[in-house]
Amino acid sequence: MGKIAFIFPGQGSQTVGMGQTLAEKNESVRSIFLKADNKLGFGLSNLIFEGPQEELTLTTNAQPALLTTSIAILNFFKQAGIEADYVAGHSLGEYTALVAAGALSFEDGVYAVRKRGECMEEAVPNREGTMAAVLGLERHELEKVTDEITQAGDPVQLANINCPGQIVISGSRHGVELASVKAKEAGAKRVLPLEVSGPFHSSLMKPASDKLSAVLDEVDIHEANIPVIANVSATAMTNPSDIKEKLIKQLYSPVQWEDSVKKMIELGVDTFIEIGPGKVLSGLVRKIDRNVKTYAISDEESFKTVYEALKEGVQ
User: Fold this and answer.
1) Which part of the chain is CATH 3.30.70.250?
2) Is 31 a catalytic residue?
3) Rounded to the nearest 5°, which phi and psi values hold at 220?
4) In a structure prediction context, what are the per-residue pLDDT tens digits for the chain, which is 315 residues long?
5) Are 272 and 290 in contact (CB under 8 A)?
6) I need a surface site. Which of 53, 157, 170, 180 has the fewest CB within 10 A?
7) What's the rounded Cα separation, in Å, for the pair 167 and 264?
């Protein structure tokens, strides 16, 4: 068996009720939700389990909710005795990966992403920015489009380079609208506007970077026990100062997910286990390389399926 990577989902995977059944059955899972409530000073677990979805989806709530649920599910999965050789997460999920790698305590992680959400919400007021998914256009072709529009005065850039043929663009509302039209003219199959509260992973997020830096100064970042593949560079990071620098840069830089997955495969990973709600990342991994194995764990049933598939590799 080759190497194993644990991967953690980002914003957009949140659903009301995620992790609830596991929390009701398992003390170690339940304790994570209680720690989040205590650290943040409000009933995050009630919002996760009972909703409403509109409130859960707010950036300031979705980010700590997803980190909490993913770490709770990871706690449950740990009983399988399967260890990761590498970890990675998509955008917000990178913080979850850092908690999983021991670079951040859970309490510091959930606090940091709550504050990160606030920074992101405050950076661009009144929904002045937006995002859109562009399907079926090569990266370099789309970059030509966004560069041209940005240079003309309407900032827009590649934000999430997810897999071949699926790239999210982000920027000013007018910039994204112009890029959407020009992307279709350049050969994109579809362009889908996204329901988001801001232009995440674009240069318009730079005003939030100083605030995020101050937040990260409040938490203890340790040497990672497991290499974490960074969103901004698709390289492994373990050093605390490197981690902080890349987390700040991540706020206004593209998420290099396709390159991150390719890097892990290059490092010998042949099994990707998505831990948290949904199956978005495992789907992207399959589109990047169909030769690797992908699994997704979000509840007890999926845990059993994955454990049965992997138990021959458990020591």
Assistant:
1) 125-197
2) no
3) -95, 120
4) 699 999 999 999 999 999 999 999 999 999 999 999 999 999 999 999 999 999 999 999 999 999 999 999 999 999 899 999 999 999 999 999 999 999 999 999 999 999 999 999 888 876 789 999 999 999 999 999 999 999 999 999 999 999 999 999 999 999 999 999 999 999 999 999 998 888 999 999 999 999 999 999 999 999 999 999 999 999 999 999 999 999 999 999 999 999 999 999 999 999 999 999 999 999 999 999 999 999 999 999 999 999 998 876 543
5) no
6) 53
7) 20
> What is the DSSP code (8-state) at residue 175?
H
CA nearest to 169, candidates 151, 192, 148, 189: 192
How far is Cα 139 from Cα 164, in angstroms, rounded to an integer? 8
Could you give the CA distance from residue 75 to residue 31 in angstroms, rounded to a whole number? 10
φ, ψ for residue 225, nearest 5 deg: -75, -25
**Active site annotation includes 201:** yes
* Residue tagged active-site, from 180, 197, 201, 282: 201
CA 219 to CA 221: how far, in whole Å? Answer: 6
- Residue ranges, CATH 3.40.366.10, the chain: 3-123+205-313
Q: Name 169's Cβ contacts closer than 8 Å, sequence gap at least 6.
A: 131, 132, 134, 142, 146, 156, 157, 158, 159, 176, 179, 180, 183
Question: 3-123+205-313 belongs to which CATH class?
Answer: alpha beta
Catalytic residue among 13, 91, 197, 260: 91
Q: Which residues contact 207 (CB under 8 A, 6 or more apart)?
A: 123
| Residue of 308, 227, 271, 226 whose CA lies nearest to 1 | 271
Instruction: Give this prediction's pTM.
Output: 0.96
Q: CATH class for domain 125-197?
A: alpha beta
Q: Could you give the count of Cα atoms lying within 13 Å of 57 in the half-sphere of its Cβ?
A: 9
Q: Tell the residue number behind the tokens 């707010």, with chain if given.
A: 58
The single-letter code of the amino acid at 110 is V
